[in-house]
Specification:
5-stranded parallel beta sheet, Rossmann fold, alpha/beta
């Protein structure tokens, strides 16, 4: 390898091992092993500008093997990003340091996404690549023509999400996507042969990817493979055979360099092996300047791009504008004029039909359930291999990848992704949903068949604990609308929720409308509101969400016949309710001693509202396979049963 390039690579190695050693925590092996590969990538191929990390046409570099985060921080520091200082690197893995244990996305820093759960970065990268193709179609290939590079490890490729994401990427022929596979054959437990005997070449080629095998420490081989990837007609994997912990006399090629500091004695030997005569964290000016030169090239690249951009006179913000408020208003008026029983999944479809007409940023999709989730309307156009003019992705039966890809779409630019599956399969999606919440992304999860109301498919498909589980995730709004009007309002809130992902929990079964009049006020924005009152003076508050709001109304009327007067509170979003003032919460919950809740799922998240004097009607066991009305009767979720138990409660 070129001596100068080797020195540049060694700067990454020593920074990484020194930071891990100082923190007494971390993963030095991967940064040391992949240093040669990323040096060639950043020096000769990657288009980026440290002075403007948010340059729209920059190449994206995603570290899917997030445990090797010091590789990324070292690169950002060395190439001149202001976001990462030497002080930050010395504070690796310390409280509030940008150099966290795994990369944590922060806008305009060079850290493109939050990775940690292995394989997530691969799906994010596929999302980036799809977004680039869509944007290229909108703005032209002279304006948008960048690539996405993702660095993955053995662990990333063991996780099933990698299969789903790479399969879809191959199907869509994402030629702008390049994976650098750190093929070091080591995982935490030891050699990967303990658990894996995949034929990687056959695996990746079966997806429709190019496959190149290179010596990850041979400059010429790395360069040639990256050069070939630049003009590929399909995605590319460059399998880099590397030595984990390269440069360590006693720990290279071993699991001992994977997830633990090398130790002070071994670090001394590494310095000797690499002929690195400098103190910990010391990068000589001549080496640092060489790295800064690599970073400085980006300013010229962006300046050249800006000339083309200005000549085209394209106003990106104008081109990607949306007029959601106008269509939300129209849909609410339609709902008031067309009073009929509708499943909330159908109400969602009608809303989308209006929204998609004038949206350049809403990108829909479903995990092979478009007809069941009602996520695709007649106004959608399909994104296909070689044709990215559309706004709808057929993800196939790939919930894991779909949600990770949506995070990538949201991170890339101004796109608002939504994707559908059944609520029960939110368990498949949980890692990606959680990362959406951590990164504060506007991602919308459309999850239908939201209770035992789906009926005959039985307990494997009937969600019980899913709503409680989702509501436990910080910075996630879970919406469960009661009718068409609420569904429209929940969609409006999801679209306006720029820093919080949302789940729309929708029914399979039809719902009678509970709100029949148009209002300019988005009542769902309060999280909970009064929808019925049977007397001025009341002794009972009935809380419900979704399909059970109708049941709550029926129960309220039934109790009124026995002179037990109540108010019904529709609570479509507990998270928004929790953000209201104390006075508002008191108005909703504090008026009566007795409170009951009704929701066809786990009662856990309702007990805090009904209190010790109340009852939470729900289901705390698995469902049954039968027509849905019979299941409701079986679990005693009927107006008759709820009324009887409530009367006993109040007359104690």
């Amino acid at each position: 390898m070129n001596k100068n390039n080797k020195i540049l690579s060694n700067a990454i190695r020593v920074l990484s091992m020194d930071a891990v050693q100082k923190a007494n925590s971390g993963h030095p092996g991967m940064p040391m092993g992949m240093a040669d590969v990323v040096t060639i990538l950043f020096k000769y191929f990657l288009r980026f500008n440290p002075k403007n990390p948010s340059w729209l046409n920059r190449d994206r570099f995603v570290l899917s093997a997030g445990h090797g985060s010091m590789l990324l921080y070292s690169l950002l520091y060395l190439t001149g990003y202001k976001s990462i200082s030497l002080k930050n690197i010395k504070n690796f893995r310390q409280l509030n340091s940008i150099c966290a244990g795994h990369p944590e996305h922060r806008p305009n820093t060079g850290i493109e996404t939050t990775t940690g759960p292995l394989g997530q970065g691969i799906s994010n990268a596929v999302g980036f690549a799809i977004a680039e193709e869509i944007l290229k179609k909108k703005l032209g290939k002279n304006i948008i023509n960048h690539k996405t590079y993702v660095l993955s490890g053995d662990g990333c490729l063991m996780e099933g999400i990698s299969h789903e994401a790479m399969s879809l990427a191959g199907h869509l022929k994402l030629k702008n996507l390049v994976m650098l596979f750190d093929n070091n054959s080591i995982s935490i437990d030891g050699p990967t042969k303990l658990a894996v005997s995949d034929n990687f070449k056959k695996r990746f080629e079966s997806y429709g990817w190019n496959y190149f095998l290179v010596n990850g420490h041979n400059e010429k081989e790395i360069f040639r493979a990256l050069k070939k990837s630049q003009h590929s007609k399909k995605p590319t994997v460059i399998s880099c055979k590397t030595k984990i912990g390269y440069g360590s006399p006693n720990k290279s090629g071993k699991a001992s360099s994977h997830g633990n500091p090398l130790g002070t004695d071994e670090i001394k030997l590494v310095r000797k092996e690499l002929n690195w005569k400098y103190k910990p964290f010391e990068i000589p000016n001549n080496i640092l300047n060489e790295w800064k030169k690599i970073g400085n090239k980006g300013a010229k690249l962006e300046a050249k791009w800006n000339k083309v951009y200005q000549k085209k006179k394209i106003k990106i913000n104008k081109l990607l504008k949306n007029n959601f408020s106008k269509f939300i208003k129209i849909e609410k008026k339609n709902a008031a004029n067309e009073i009929k029983s509708l499943a909330s999944r159908k109400s969602s479809e009608l809303t989308l039909g209006s929204l998609i007409k004038d949206s350049n940023t809403l990108i829909g999709g479903s995990a092979d359930l478009a007809g069941s989730n009602n996520t695709k309307t007649k106004y959608h156009k399909i994104i296909e291999p070689g044709n990215f003019a559309g706004n709808y992705i057929h993800y196939g039966v790939r919930e894991h990848a779909m949600c990770g890809i949506m995070n990538g779409l949201a991170l890339h630019s101004s796109f608002i992704p939504y994707g559908g599956t059944f609520l029960i399969f939110s368990d498949y999606c949980k890692s990606s949903i959680r990362l959406s919440a951590i990164m504060k992304l506007r991602v919308i999860y459309v999850m239908t068949h939201d209770s035992i109301g789906l009926g005959e498919d039985g307990p494997t498909h009937q969600p019980i604990e899913q709503l409680s589980g989702l509501r436990a995730i910080p910075n996630l709004n879970v919406f469960r609308p009661a009718d068409r009007m609420e569904t429209i309002e929940c969609w409006e809130l999801a679209l306006k929720s720029t820093n919080t992902p949302c789940v729309l929990s929708l029914t399979r079964q039809n719902l009678n409308p509970v709100r029949k009049k148009y209002s300019n006020i988005n009542k769902c924005s309060f999280g909970a509101y009064e929808i019925l009152r049977t007397n001025k003076k009341i002794s009972l508050t009935i809380l419900a969400s979704g399909s059970e709001v109708n049941m709550a109304i029926e129960t309220s009327h039934k109790l009124a016949k026995y002179k037990i007067y109540s108010k019904v509170i529709s609570m479509p979003c507990q998270e928004l309710f929790e953000k209201q003032s104390k006075a508002f919460k008191q108005k909703i919950l504090g008026e009566t001693k007795f409170k009951i809740s009704i929701e066809a799922g786990s009662t856990d998240c309702w007990k805090k509202y009904v209190g010790v004097n109340g009852l939470a009607f729900g289901i705390d066991e698995f469902g049954k396979s039968a027509p849905y009305k019979e299941i409701f009767k079986y679990f005693e979720l009927t107006t008759e049963n709820i009324s009887k138990k409530t009367m006993k409660l109040i007359k104690k």
